């Protein structure tokens, strides 16, 4: 038997050198298993050597100093680390959204090194696939070693061995890596003279560590974007008019700016003219970009299609098939920040399930967002507990325009429903409220008619009410004015949702300081509700309640009581005693009973309502807590301020537990408790309580919120009552300036502030000034509120008192004589204000004549 011959196992290689290895021509054989593979001789290139075909520099390239600095810092610090034996960074991974200019940044860096003579080898590898990388490596290995491997994988490994052992200074640029797995086993090795730059749309964990540092590339700064357009249009500088505005409109995306510039040059359009086309809703994205054969700077795709490959890759990542649908949802929301909770809402996961044909849960939806983040199609902001998603506006537009009309409706309704679901019933977080409102407004614009397919979506109404709830009452009125116009156009004037927008508009018109206008508007809505919906429809009954409420706020409390009595009877008949709307009407009826001079009746009515609310809604429901607050207030009005203090203290404890310390209703309760402490004989305690409250209101609600302004007025009042009329006058003067700015001169709260200021000026020693000020306030009350409004009657009484205090007792008596006539007519003989007017008339007559009248 012949002796056994040793054969290398599969995968093992041994090189056998044949010929003179010191010459320029070599021939090498490789044994693989039983196969002997021959390589062909090849000339070894001389150094310095440049390999691969790098793209041309952009015609209007902008040096992005900050990003380049980060790249240089990563690579240069890596070389220093090699010398010191410290952990090294020798690879810069330039990652970013498609179109942000990653390739140009890498090219600029490489050219600087090459031009300065700091490189012996520069290789540009178009790294779209593993095959492309292996092929480029093998060619470079042939150039550098003179060995041409027929097995390209072996050739690639030969290059890596050369790079690790060579003393040459080399740079490998791997441009447009599509998949980190393509580089498995192909990462260039760490070497003292070696640098690697990778450009990719990915930011997977596999691209980090092991001597690699991620350098994230964002869009241009506004200044860089403007400079780019001006440079790109330098041959026709007149076209650069409006460059700054267009740069912002295009989201400062380099790819979009380059293609827009080419489009403008081809059509002789200025930036201003192009921007007008860009913002036109009739224009598609594709129609605003050059044709594929007219793209600048060797672009391979237009903005309209440049992200399609990234979306396809994201869809292939696990969980497969949902990333694209998530991007569709993101495309109709606010690019600057979408609550991540939107994407895990059941309505959105249901949309994902119908899209991919299988069940999708919230965890899979979160992972799908991660897929989009890995491809740089979105950015996940993890800086706060409530994570948000950001997406470039052009990615949104390209995604949205690819949606068929029926698909847009489905996506828009899922997004709208998700926003509504995550919108807290109690808005404790002002920042979240702003984010939700911004997303709804963007959604309404992006979705167009889609949110009106089944009537106006509820999230549209929630947005306007949210504005009013945080104190932006004028903004809420304007919002519903616009929403009504849209509803009338899309649904018609008699659609229930159109009528609803009118009701919301009427409400915020009143809250913004026009209660008389609110009454008129609600009466018009009521007439149409009766005609369209009928007298027993719940919306009709609600509208009747609103008419009654604003009738009282407009100065007719007697009319309000009568109207509430009628609507309550119908609510009991149609809806039943336990319906929420019936309970609301009962609470309003109780309040206005107190306002017409029956505080005892108000207390009794609120006690009954509270009993039923506790039974039907439970003790912690916000409306139940509100009824407790009203009951406590009217207890104080019947002459039991100490009992009111105790009731408010108990209520505050429950509000802190249920709503939290910063909820507006909790803050309001603290203010009402402070007031009752003052009424119970502790004005100094009221001052201290309001000072603490005001600090929290400024922090939570802001300086211009109506509740904050009210707290400032109450603090000023109790400061005066505690013995500091000068301080009270100064505080009211500051408050008046702010109320004029925020609410305007004719708002009832502004007029009330002027009255308080007049009073405390008088108390501070200027009775004649008080008389003059009250005359001016009274004239404006008559003009704005009318002669019968309670505030007008109160102002008239103050004017009479200061006439007397200024030395004109006869004038005070004459004024009170006329006032008593008006009070009897408006409020009736039994109202407390009527009794007060009668008493004051007697008092000033005595002071005028020196003895009681006959």
Tally of alpha and pi helices: 34
> Mean pLDDT, nearest integer?
88
- Summing up helix and strand content along with how strands pair, one would put the structural category as alpha/beta
Task: Give the overall form.
Answer: elongated
Low-confidence residue ranges: 1-38, 78-87
Number of strands: 14
Kindly, what is the distance between the CA atoms of the first and last residues, rounded to a whole number of angstroms?
A: 154 Å
Largest sheet: 6 strands, parallel
| Rg | 38 Å
The percent range for helix content is 55-70%
Strand order of the largest sheet: 5-7-9-10-6-11
Portion of residues in beta strands equals 5-15%
Write a concise synopsis of the structure shown:
The chain is of the alpha/beta class and 854 residues long. It has 34 helices and 14 strands.
Molecular structure report:
By secondary structure, the protein is an alpha/beta fold. It has 34 helices and 14 strands. A six-stranded parallel beta sheet has the order 5-7-9-10-6-11, with helices on both faces. Strands 1-2-3 form a three-stranded antiparallel beta sheet, with no helix packed on it. A hairpin with a 6-residue loop joins strand 13 and strand 14. Helix 26 packs antiparallel against helix 27 and helix 27 (683-700) runs antiparallel to helix 28 (706-721). The longest helix has 20 residues, at 65-84. It is elongated and about 130 Å long. The chain starts with 12 loop residues before the first strand and ends in a 5-residue tail after the last helix. Residues 1-38 and 78-87 have low confidence and may be disordered.
């Amino acid at each position: 038997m012949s002796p056994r011959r040793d054969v290398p196992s599969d995968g093992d290689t041994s090189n056998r050198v044949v010929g003179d290895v010191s010459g320029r021509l070599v021939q090498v054989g490789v044994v693989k298993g039983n196969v002997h593979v021959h390589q062909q001789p090849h000339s070894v290139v001389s150094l310095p050597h440049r390999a691969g075909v790098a793209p041309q520099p952009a015609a209007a390239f902008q040096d992005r100093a900050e990003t380049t600095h980060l790249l240089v810092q990563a690579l240069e610090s890596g070389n220093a680390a090699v010398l010191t034996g410290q952990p090294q960074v020798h690879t810069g991974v330039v990652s970013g959204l498609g179109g942000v200019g990653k390739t140009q940044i890498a090219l600029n860096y490489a050219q600087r090194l090459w031009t300065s003579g700091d490189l012996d080898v520069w290789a540009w590898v178009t790294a779209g696939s593993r095959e492309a990388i292996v092929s480029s490596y093998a060619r470079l290995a042939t150039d550098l070693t003179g060995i041409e491997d027929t097995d390209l994988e072996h050739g690639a490994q030969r290059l890596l061995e050369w790079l690790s052992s060579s003393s040459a200074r080399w740079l490998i640029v791997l441009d447009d890596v599509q998949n980190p797995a393509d580089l498995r086993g192909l990462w260039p090795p760490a070497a003292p003279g070696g640098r690697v730059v990778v450009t990719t749309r990915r930011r997977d964990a596999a691209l980090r560590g092991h001597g690699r540092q991620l350098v994230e590339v964002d869009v241009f700064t506004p200044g860089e974007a403007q400079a780019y357009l001006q440079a790109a249009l330098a041959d026709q500088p007149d076209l650069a008019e409006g460059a700054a505005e267009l740069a912002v409109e295009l989201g400062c995306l380099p790819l979009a700016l380059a293609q827009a510039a080419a489009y403008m040059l081809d059509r002789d359009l200025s930036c201003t003219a192009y921007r007008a086309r860009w913002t036109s809703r009739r224009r598609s994205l594709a129609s605003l970009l050059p044709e594929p054969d007219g793209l600048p700077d060797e672009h391979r795709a237009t903005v309209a299609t440049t992200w399609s490959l990234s979306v396809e890759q994201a869809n292939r990542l696990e969980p497969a098939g949902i990333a694209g649908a998530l991007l569709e949802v993101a495309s109709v929301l606010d690019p600057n920040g979408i609550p991540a909770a939107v994407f895990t809402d059941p309505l959105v996961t249901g949309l994902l399930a119908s899209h991919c044909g299988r069940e999708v849960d919230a965890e899979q939806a979160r992972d799908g967002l991660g897929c989009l983040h890995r491809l740089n199609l979105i950015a996940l902001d993890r800086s706060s507990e409530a994570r948000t998603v950001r997406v470039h506006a052009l990615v949104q537009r390209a995604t949205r325009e690819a949606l068929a009309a029926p698909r847009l409706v489905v996506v828009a309704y899922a997004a709208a429903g998700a926003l509504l679901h995550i919108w807290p019933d109690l808005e404790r977080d002002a920042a979240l409220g702003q984010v939700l409102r911004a997303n709804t407004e963007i959604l309404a614009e992006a979705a167009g008619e889609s949110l009106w397919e089944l009537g106006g979506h509820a999230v549209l109404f929630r947005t306007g009410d949210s504005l009013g709830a945080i104190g932006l009452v004028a903004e809420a009125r304007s919002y519903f004015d616009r929403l009504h116009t849209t509803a009338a156009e899309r649904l018609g004037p008699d659609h229930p949702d159109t009528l609803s927008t009118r009701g919301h508009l009427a409400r915020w018109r009143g809250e913004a300081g026009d209660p008389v206008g609110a009454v008129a508007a609600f009466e018009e809505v009521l007439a149409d509700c009766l005609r369209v919906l009928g007298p027993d429809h719940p919306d009709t009954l609600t509208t009747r309640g609103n008419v009654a409420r604003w009738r009282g706020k407009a100065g007719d409390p007697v009319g309000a009581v009568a109207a509430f009595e009628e609507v309550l009877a119908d609510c009991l008949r149609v809806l039943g005693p336990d319906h929420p709307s019936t309970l609301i009407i009962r609470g309003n009826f109780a309040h206005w009973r107190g306002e017409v001079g029956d505080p005892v009746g108000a207390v009794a009515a609120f006690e009954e309502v509270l009993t039923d609310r506790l039974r039907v809604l439970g003790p912690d429901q916000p409306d139940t807590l509100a009824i407790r607050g009203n009951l406590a207030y009217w207890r104080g009005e019947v002459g039991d301020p100490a009992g009111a203090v105790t009731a408010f203290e108990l209520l505050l404890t429950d509000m802190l537990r249920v709503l939290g310390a910063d909820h507006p209703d909790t803050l309001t309760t603290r203010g009402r408790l402070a007031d009752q402490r003052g009424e119970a004989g502790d004005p100094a305690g009221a001052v201290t309580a309001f000072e603490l409250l005001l600090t929290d209101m400024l922090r939570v609600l802001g300086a211009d919120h109506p509740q904050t302004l009210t707290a400032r007025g109450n603090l000023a009042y109790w400061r005066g009552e505690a013995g500091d009329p000068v301080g009270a006058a100064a505080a009211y003067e500051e408050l008046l300036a702010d109320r004029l700015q925020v609410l305007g001169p004719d708002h009832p709260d502004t007029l009330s502030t002027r009255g308080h200021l007049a009073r405390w000026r008088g108390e501070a020693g200027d009775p004649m000034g008080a008389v003059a000020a009250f005359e001016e306030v009274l004239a404006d009350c008559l003009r704005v509120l009318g002669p019968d409004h309670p505030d007008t009657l109160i102002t008239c009484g103050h004017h009479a008192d200061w006439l007397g205090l200024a030395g004109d007792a006869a004038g005070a008596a004459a004024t009170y004589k006329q006032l008593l006539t008006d009070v009897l007519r408006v409020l009736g003989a039994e109202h407390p204000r009527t009794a007060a007017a009668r008493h004051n008339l007697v008092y000033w007559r005595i002071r005028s004549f020196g003895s009681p009248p006959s």
